[in-house]
Specification:
By secondary structure, the chain is α+β, with helices and mostly antiparallel strands. The chain contains six helices and six strands; from the N terminus they run H-H-E-E-H-E-E-E-H-H-E-H. The strands form three sheets. A two-stranded antiparallel sheet has the order 1-2. Strands 3-6 form a two-stranded antiparallel ribbon. Strand 1 and strand 2 form a beta hairpin.
């Protein structure tokens, strides 16, 4: 970017775009995130170098697993990337009970949602047995992708590129107006 030009309009627009992506991501997670931990951890950082700006979206450690999904031992999972293409998840559960999701966490998740498991005869099973069954089911089938970051970005990226050009134009026009000729 040219030196001396203050990109105030562009700064405001990029900041508002990042806030928009965060709002959209939280909306997409509203039914999936029971505790709100993932939603409240979402954030962004704008890194500015001399000729390049980088937008980095962040979240808790497991955010990328939720965003891209995890393939199971018996099935595949896909997600939507920032170009809008469907891709296979890079994450996969391995076989063996030590590689399954923790049953205790799934038990707590089911309790928070008021879910109770039943056996083949329709009788209620213990919460521990239900957590174990959920764990095994998730390990086999995987977890679907929420695409909470990538989908809003892919939907809005073309408009984002156009708006960036408009805001750079505004900033250049403002810079030219400020030039004083002696």
């Amino acid at each position: 970017m040219a030196s001396g030009i203050k990109y105030t309009s562009l700064d405001r627009y990029v900041e508002s775009y990042c806030q928009y992506i965060i709002r959209q991501a939280k909306h997409r997670l509203s039914k999936k995130d029971v505790t709100g931990t993932l939603s409240s951890s979402l954030g962004f950082e704008i890194k500015k170098d001399k000729n390049k700006w980088t937008l980095e979206f962040s979240g808790v450690k497991y955010a990328d697993f939720v965003n891209k999904g995890v393939q199971g031992t018996k099935g595949t999972r896909t997600y939507i990337d920032i170009e809008g293409n469907r891709k296979r998840s890079p994450y996969k559960f391995k076989t063996g009970k030590e590689n399954a999701p923790p049953p205790s966490k799934l038990r707590d998740w089911a309790k928070a949602r008021g879910l109770k498991g039943r056996d083949k005869l329709g009788r209620f099973i213990t919460d521990e047995a239900f957590g174990f069954a959920l764990s095994r089911g998730i390990q086999k089938a995987g977890t679907p992708a929420a695409s909470f970051y990538t989908q809003p970005i892919s939907y809005s990226f073309n408009v984002f590129k156009q708006k960036i050009q408009e805001h750079i134009k505004i900033d250049i026009e403002n810079y030219i107006k400020e030039i004083k000729f002696d």
